[in-house]
Amino acid sequence: MGLTPLPFTHLPHGGARSAPGTLGPMSADHDSAAGSTAAPSTGFAAAPARPRTAYGKETWKEIVFLLSNLFTALTGFVYAVVSVLLGVGLSVTVIGLPLLALGLGGARWIGRSERARARVLLGVEVREPSPLPRRGGFFGWLWSALKDPVAWRTQLYGLIRLPWGILTFTVSLVSLFVLWPVLPFLSRLLAGADRGMVRGLLSPSDELERRIAELETDRGVVVDTAAADLRRIERDLHDGAQARLVALAMGLGLAKEKLLDDPEAAAAMVDEAHGEVKLALQELRDLARGIHPAVLTDRGLGAALSSVSARCTVPVRVDVDLAERPAEAIEGIAYFTVSELLQNVSKHSRARSASVEVWRAADRLMLRVRDDGTGGARLDGGTGLAGLAERLGAVDGVLVLDSPAGGPTAVTAELPWRDRPTAR
């Protein structure tokens, strides 16, 4: 299996760690600037750009754009009408909403092609919108696609463009043969309206709304995870320590009754109860460690990860390179992330050895767990990696899986650093 990334900052694989603040290759603009001798700044304004000529290259590009509007507008209009009406009309069936979601996904591709056309012919630089978040399985994808504002605005763009495309095509074509003297003026006027529509409907100005929607989804993940943890703790207490303590109380009651009549039997029952007390205490310690280990609070990630690595079924090398500790919540998430990944190593990897690396890169906490097992791990392979990726995403984190068939497997997690608050 190849690399399965979740969208976020670039994460290094298999090589040396990138030092925070290291500069990448310089851009072409920087190279050209470095290779030339620039005059010192004198505080005067730069020379104005060369004025645009009436029948220059910009005018002809605008005319090509306006003439091509008819075809693109007709295509966008037909696609918008068919995809929306088909999806809405079949929404009473099980295939309606998925068809509508697929239609909205196709609208994103139409928007991308329109932005490219405007970029080449009109010089309109519009950033590409961020991709849809990919988590939550089929229904998560369906809900994200149906409420995608980028796709809906692209569909609106396709609907309103048909009359405009007919108008601009007709005016431009007539101007080429009849209204030649005013052709540059008309092309600039009509192209200006096109620029406004591209910027208004196809630009990613909805990033704030998208971020709010992602935070709402992440909040749901956090709530569901917390509820699941509470149910797990309740189940462990009920089926484990509580049941053992009830049996212990009954045994001590029987021993009390036999204390005078059969001291030897009572002593044997007390001895058995003593063993039950030890087991109950061990279960409570394990339960407390699952909630938040004391070693993590007292000594930090290095000692805590060494402790959890010692319980792994394969030898684990731990390398924690942190000059200071992150926020307590991030530290806890990092601990349980490594703990779950090492459980996967024990259960699924068939590895002979593993390693854990932790370091800081700028304002991010980086974790990497590697093993030399058989590989082939997948985010949807039943190893809990999909749920782990969702939980990391809820705190603005990232999970990257690199697990080709035959191994080795490397899982890299990235979390926000968030400095530990200082005591006042």
Q: Which keywords apply here?
A:
elongated; 6 strands; disordered N terminus; alpha+beta; 424 residues
Layout of SSEs?
Layout: E1 3-4, H1 28-34, H2 57-89, H3 96-121, H4 137-146, H5 149-177, H6 183-201, H7 207-261, H8 263-291, H9 294-299, H10 301-310, E2 316-321, H11 328-349, E3 354-361, E4 364-371, H12 385-393, E5 398-402, E6 409-416
Parallel strand pairs: 2-3
Antiparallel strand pairs: 1-5, 3-4, 4-6, 5-6
Helix pairs in contact: 2-3, 2-5, 2-6, 3-4, 3-5, 5-6, 7-8, 10-11
Question: Can you give a write-up of this model?
Answer:
- This protein is of the alpha+beta class and 424 residues long.
- It has twelve helices and six strands.
- The chain has helices at 28-34, 57-89, 96-121, 137-146, 149-177, 183-201, 207-261, 263-291, 294-299, 301-310, 328-349, 385-393; strands at 3-4, 316-321, 354-361, 364-371, 398-402, 409-416.
- The chain has a six-stranded mixed β-sheet with strand order 1-5-6-4-3-2.
- A hairpin with a 6-residue loop joins strand 5 (398-402) and strand 6 (409-416).
- Helix 3 (96-121) crosses helix 5 (149-177).
- The longest helix has 55 residues, at 207-261.
- The chain is elongated.
- It starts with a strand and ends in an 8-residue tail after the last strand.
